[in-house]
């Protein structure tokens, strides 16, 4: 049996194979991850809740079922971290907000229920920007999560907790949500792999809603194959979600294995959208991206420049649509039905209690977006703001359709910079908003996206992510191409990217030099 340190460094696929072969037990795997969390999470703060007793009981059940000869899922017994935006029955679900502090759901989110049915073991709920509003996980009501590559840097957001947990070997797999890049951007900043499925491909039932037409649940892992294996678990139609697609999805894991085997890049047409090559892209990010294009070309891929003229309006449109939908979704936190309740001195009318509760329960960024959204939906402004933003959304969708008539996938930097220092944006929301400029268009169009690490930036030694986008329903295409690129990067570097992390792996965390 491997020791704890060795177990936590196995990929999900490797751990699953060891579990199936009886070389390790699910209890051992869960305990190893819980020990790792106890070792490093005091510094990182990736988790908001853990319950060792519940996790070990779930793992023990998997071992008993396996010993009884029951046929189990491919990932049965593998530990899983869950972004706190997904409700669970065994641990609190707060969405990073004080207004839901201590809330326990009477049901599991569909993605969580599918994971449990497949035998994965929940080892904890991960930190996030409050109600998924943010790009750094500094907006959590429970304090920021730190980047395991450098503890003075952010891990991205809103799903920085899930990305950090995976990057720091606290979990081999995690679930996240992506409304404008909240899976892909933290993946880029922490050197992990993250996927935003086609909108409707994975059920949103039980995900605490931010913007219902943009939110999508997806996987986070250290390798493309692991990400694909988790995608296969959670994908599929759900009658509880009215936006869930009735579609027969191919195996994402099979596509990833095909890509890693080689040959899938020959003749691949890769689009580079000039509007996604933003001014101000960090030199080290740009250099790594251009190196990746050269790797693709050397393997027979064709690089095609794409003009998508309406992409430049994506951020503006997104930050009208998202706040508008958020202001509607967050109206349910009224101090009456569930969650926090603050009774002010004096008259305890419903209006006063609601006002006092929201003042205490919501953070500054949440209040900002509620105000923006309510204004955009108000009489006299609806057509000028929200209506116009939806028209821009349609134009962006048409730009994508025209692009995919010419290319198989689109490639771009996932984020324009590497991880920035904690507090560097000084509370200026525009700096965070612009960091999502390359990821937002995919959410507006409902298409799938994948981020994978392609190296580190020369100037700071921090991870750089490559984003791949494909047409709706073509998630498998991303895994096929992504695994092929991952293999090329591994061959170039001599080892998998995740194995190169200098941070909390077997020693003290380093501080970034710059």
Word description of this protein:
This protein is α/β, with parallel strands linked by helices. The chain is built from 17 helices and eleven strands. The protein has helices at about 5-10, 10-20, 25-45, 50-65, 110-115, 160-165, 185-190, 225-235, 250-260, 285-300, 315-330, 350-360, 365-375, 385-405, 430-435, 440-445, 475-495; strands at about 45-50, 80-85, 120-125, 175, 195, 215-220, 270-275, 300-305, 410-415, 450-455, 465-470. The chain has an eleven-stranded mixed beta sheet with strand order 1-3-2-4-6-5-10-11-9-7-8, with helices on both faces. Helix 8 (about 225-235) runs antiparallel to helix 9 and helix 11 crosses helix 14 (about 385-405).
Which keywords apply here?
eleven-stranded mixed sheet, 514 residues, 2 domains, 17 helices, disordered C terminus, globular
- Please state the average pLDDT score: 94
| The CATH superfamily title of the largest domain | Amidase signature (AS) domain
Shape from CA axes?
globular
Give the CATH level 1 class of the largest domain.
Answer: Alpha Beta
Low-confidence segments, ≥5 residues, pLDDT <50? 505-514
Q: Enter the CATH topology name of the largest domain.
A: Amidase signature (AS) enzymes
Count of discrete domains: 2
List SSEs in N-to-C order: HHHEHEHEHEHEEHHEHEHHHHEHHEEH
From the alpha-carbon coordinates, what is the Rg to the nearest angstrom? 22 Å
